[in-house]
Amino acid sequence: MTFSLERPLVLLGAGKMGGALLSGWLANGLAPRLVEVRDPAPSAEILQLAAKGISINAPVQEVAAKRPVLVLLAVKPQSMGDVLPELAPLVSPDTVFLSIAAGIGLHRLEDLLGASVHAIRAMPNTPAAIGRGITVACANARVTPAQKKLADDLLAAVGEVGWVESEGLIDAVTAVSGSGPAYVFYMVECLAAAGEALGLDAALAMKLARATVSGSGEMLHRMNEPASELRANVTSPGGTTAAALDVLMGEGGLSPLMRRAALAARDRARVLGK
Fold first, then answer.
1. pLDDT digits (tens, 9 = 90+) for 150-208
2. What is the CA angle 106-108-113, rounded to 5?
3. Cα gap 88→84, rounded to integer Å
């Protein structure tokens, strides 16, 4: 995919997720001169891009005069109320605002930027940093088909993209895929700790856990079989895997625990959005 735009993109917040998206765009051919970054403390990597033509912290009116095609909102949810009102000059029918801030709903964006804003709320996840992310998005009624396609193309630069009509589902997406990588990383920690408890050297236990989870994830990525079938393929009746799954799939096992965890994440997303 190669991006060919005539008007600039604005990136508000160039931290891990914003930076990952920017890296994906540049890798797919977006011209640096078409990027306007706004960040109070730009990283060394972002500052280095200035030499290639990226604009950093230009005055808002100057940026507005360029009629940006899209503004990516990638700051912390708690900062939105402070930083969004200053972007009001960028609001126009020609500009779509794409927010990846957890818990910040479309109505909140409209409150902060004005009822006329064309807004999309999206939830990516951190594997976007290696081009293997997954993002789910929802648009308000003013977003045009062309703006939706632009957002889809930009998000697809760092992984898969899905859309939902009901914004209420975005908090559930946050609980599953937005926060989900942390669950997987914690599972690696727990699996390695279990290996240590069985007598393995700490370094070897972690190596085994990392390789097992990353390899299994790659199988899920490459193969069409359902996860349940892949699990069954590893499980011999009466064998070692079956013994472990009797614990994980038993009463109070992994399934109800994961449901409680996802529910807690969804509820926290709703609190952040208030």
1. 999 999 988 999 999 999 899 999 999 999 999 999 999 999 999 999 999 999 999 99
2. 95
3. 7
pLDDT digits (tens, 9 = 90+) for 92-105: 999 999 999 888 89
Helix (H, G, I), strand (E, B) or coil at 83: helix
The residues, ordered by sequence, that sit 6+ positions from 129 with a Cβ below 8 Å of its Cβ are 16, 20, 23, 158
For residue 135, count other CB atoms closer than 10 A to its CB: 25
DSSP codes joined into one string, 104-143: --HHHHHHHH-TT-EEEEEE--GGGGGT-EEEEEEE-TT-
pLDDT tier at 107, thresholds 50, 70, 90 = very high
Give every CB contact of residue 169 below 8 A, 6+ residues apart in sequence.
136, 138
pTM of the model: 0.86
Q: What is the DSSP string of 154-219?
A: HHHTTEEEEE-S-GGGHHHHIIIIISHHHHHHHHHHHHHHHHHHTT--HHHHHHHHHHHHHHHHHH
Both tokens of 13, joined, read 């917040």
Reading the block at residue 19, the tokens are 């930076």
CA distance linking residue 3 with residue 22, whole number of Å: 12
For 129, the token pair is 């940093």
Q: How far apart are CA 187 and CA 164, in angstroms?
A: 29
Distance CA 167, CA 153 (A): 20
Buried b (16+ CB within 10 A) or exposed e, 187-225: ebeebbeebeeeebeeeebbeebeeebeeeeeeeeeeee
Phi, psi of 6 (to 5 degrees): -100, -20
